[in-house]
Write a structure and sequence with these properties.
Elements lengths: L5 H38 L4 H42 L2 E2 L6 H14 L5 E5 L6 E4 L7 E5 H6 L2 H17 L1 H31 L6 H6 L5 H25 L3 H14 L2 H11 L10 H4 L20 H12 L29 H7 L34
Parallel strand pairs: 2-4
Antiparallel strand pairs: 1-2, 3-4
Length: 390
């Protein structure tokens, strides 16, 4: 499957990143003006045109401070976003000595494309999921769950790593991080303004009675409604920005994985195993949007951050010639222990192995998969990939 549109997508992501940063400052300024308008309305019941002009004057005074605060927020996110994500998910960085199988698979893919190898991290969770994070080459990392690590064969894991590498290569990761930062800034400013308004209303608002008598036709009520409307619109726009990020990125990441591994069947099988089993209980919605699959769905497909697994597999079958085995009746993540057997290639009990994974046997950590599982099923084709060493 040719990764059609990948390079156009990369250029588009660069332009969108700049547009998102500009949009961030615009939304922050809208919130600052809304806060200034609310403050004026809470202090005096003057005509609406007077309140609008007074709020504009306050906005100009606050503009430099708002700009500096936004820049500081962005710098903090740039420096510490990975640490915050690791704190939320429990991710830990691993070395080649700790995870030779994963490290070799990832390194071989990077060597085949001449790109730096990102950091490799593990989340100790039975869920089947993976995601990439970072804003530059020094920060890029790929995180996989221990459940995914043990449920997938080498070929399937290689396909997942190729998917995440394509996200990094395309600039999707940078876009998602910027979108999350935007949502965080808007939520922070919006909540702060609402709290100030409610606190002011609770303690009387400090409205000047002399101002009310001097200026007839008070427009404080309308001004407050306008301020609330501006805050609501800014918040909604920040949400729309996150959902407006093209879901095409997942199709293209799947295509990029096939381009790297030359094995569409491995990508399809990995998606079928991940399907419905990727929920990370400790992760917030922003982290789940970065994952290879986001099982958290809204009330309509319009607001879904990922295409459905069925649609992604349909694209791989149609364009890459892959074969879809259909949904797999695997145990739910909370029904599977992440601990691996200590004897034999798996547990040594064929019946227990069938109950664990009926389609593809898991691979013991740090060991290459055998040529055939206990049920005589051959390994998936390797395509044109490099074989990793030991």
């Amino acid at each position: 499957m040719a990764a059609f549109g990948l390079y156009t997508h990369i250029q588009s992501n660069r332009r969108r990143s700049i547009a998102l940063l500009i949009g961030l400052f615009f939304l922050v300024y809208v919130l600052v003006y809304a806060g200034a308008l609310a403050a004026e309305a809470m202090s005096t019941n003057a005509p609406l045109d007077y309140l609008l002009r007074a709020a504009w004057y306050d906005f100009l005074l606050a503009l430099p401070w708002a700009t500096v605060a936004t820049i500081i927020w962005m710098l903090i996110a740039y420096k510490f976003h990975q640490s915050m994500i690791d704190a939320i998910t429990g991710g830990r960085e691993v070395s080649r000595a700790e995870e030779p199988r994963l490290y070799n698979l990832l390194e071989n893919l990077c060597i085949s494309r001449g790109i730096p190898t990102p950091k490799l991290k593990i989340v100790d969770d039975v869920a089947l999921n993976a995601f990439a994070t970072g804003l530059n080459q020094k920060q890029y990392s790929i995180t996989v769950t221990s459940g995914l690590q043990q449920a997938l064969t080498d070929a399937e894991m290689e396909a997942v790593l190729g998917h995440e590498l394509t996200h990094i290569r395309n600039g999707d990761v940078r876009m998602l991080v910027i979108a999350v930062v935007i949502a965080g800034v808007i939520s922070f400013f919006g909540e702060m303004i609402f709290r100030l308004m409610f606190q002011s209303a609770r303690f009387g608002g400090g409205r000047s009675s002399s101002s009310s008598s001097d200026r007839k036709g008070g427009g404080a009520g309308i001004a407050i409604l306008i301020a609330i409307g501006l805050i609501a619109v800014s918040w909604l726009l920040s949400i729309v920005i996150r959902f407006a990020l093209s879901r095409q990125r997942e199709y293209l990441a799947d295509a990029g994985s096939v381009e790297l591994t030359k094995n569409p069947d491995a990508m399809i099988m990995a998606l079928r195993k991940i399907e419905g089993r990727g929920e990370l209980p400790r992760a917030n919605s922003a982290v789940m949007e970065m994952c290879i699959d986001n099982p958290r769905t809204d009330f309509t497909d319009i607001f879904a951050t990922h295409p459905s697994i069925d649609k992604r597999i349909e694209a791989l079958v149609r364009l890459a010639g892959g074969h879809d085995p259909g949904p797999l009746a695997l145990p739910a993540p909370d029904e599977v222990s992440v601990e691996r057997p200590t004897e034999g290639p798996w547990s040594g009990d064929a019946e227990a192995d069938r109950a664990f994974l009926p389609e593809h046997p898991p691979v013991e950590l740090g060991r290459a998969a055998p040529e055939a599982g206990p049920w005589g099923r051959p390994r998936p084709p390797w395509g044109m990939r490099r074989r990793h060493l030991g």
